[in-house]
Amino acid sequence: MSVTIVNHTDAVALWGAAMITPVLINIVQTKAVCHVAADGGADRLYDADIAPAAVIGDLDSLSDQSRVAFADLLYPSSDQNTTDFQKAVRAINAPLILAVGFLGGRLDHTFAVLNTLIQERLGHVILLSEDDVCFCAPQGEFELKLPPTTRVGLLPMGAARVETKGLRWDIKDAAMATDGFMSTSNETVSEVLHMHVMGRLLITLPLSTLDAVISAVRAE
């Protein structure tokens, strides 16, 4: 059973160990006042001179300087059946988690994070990279307010059934699957993208759409 370590009524930024650009650092600082590190993500916070509310994980990747600087904020877990990302998100109680430093590093780590997003249905978690936002599609009908010609990727992580209105190549109540049909490099043709989703689907959009994604996620 997971124990809640961080409680917050607004967005929490969760930091991973992959490289985080100054642009992303600025974005998460404007969107969240509470910061949590997953293991080596503490080094990114240390470098950015940001104090975490907690450092969670098995702590095997933590530098000596961060271990000393954040000594009173360490929450070690030796559970080898969960990743540091899992340990951290399970320990945070917040309506929204902006996760940076989990995309663009090791490929196996990236796949593990995406798998966790889907398997645990973490609809309140948005992954950020230098180029993209990635999140679980809400179930049922929802909409995203996006500028025309916005790049959209619809990536099934299992079985899904999807219908869209507002894409250049709309999807008409189609079955999607990891080993079957998916939609990459699609784009919007109107200012509102209407979707109906049932099943396990990730959506990727440009980083510039973060505010629209936050609105859609919080509407759920």
Give the N-terminus to C-terminus distance in angstroms: 25 Å
What class do helices, strands and sheet pairing give? alpha/beta
User: What is the level-2 CATH architecture name of the largest domain?
Assistant: 3-Layer(aba) Sandwich
Poorly predicted runs of 5 or more residues:
none
- What is the number of domains? 2
Q: Please give the radius of gyration in angstroms.
A: 17 Å
Text of the CATH class of the largest domain: Alpha Beta
Q: Roughly what fraction of the amino acids lie in strands?
A: 35-45%
Largest sheet, if any? 12 strands, mixed
Question: What is the third-level CATH name, the topology of the largest domain?
Answer: Rossmann fold
Kindly state the percentage of residues in helix: 10-25%
Please tell me about this protein's structure.
With 220 residues, this protein is of the alpha/beta class. It folds into 2 domains: 6-130, 3-Layer(aba) Sandwich (Rossmann fold), CATH 3.40.50.10240; 136-218, Thiamin pyrophosphokinase, catalytic domain (Rossmann fold, 3-Layer(aba) Sandwich). Helix content is 24%, strand content 35%. It has 6 helices and 14 strands. It has helices spanning 22-31, 41-47, 64-69, 84-90, 107-119, 210-218; strands spanning 6-7, 12-15, 34-38, 54-57, 74-76, 92-93, 97-100, 125-128, 132-136, 140-145, 151-165, 174-176, 183-187, 192-206. Strands 2, 3, 4, 5, 7, 8, 9, 10, 11, 12, 13 and 14 form a 12-stranded mixed sheet that branches. The model has no long low-confidence stretch (mean pLDDT 94).
Strands, helices and their partners?
Elements: E1 6-7, E2 12-15, H1 22-31, E3 34-38, H2 41-47, E4 54-57, H3 64-69, E5 74-76, H4 84-90, E6 92-93, E7 97-100, H5 107-119, E8 125-128, E9 132-136, E10 140-145, E11 151-165, E12 174-176, E13 183-187, E14 192-206, H6 210-218
Parallel strand pairs: 1-6, 2-3, 2-7, 3-4, 4-5, 7-8
Antiparallel strand pairs: 8-9, 9-14, 10-14, 11-12, 11-13, 11-14
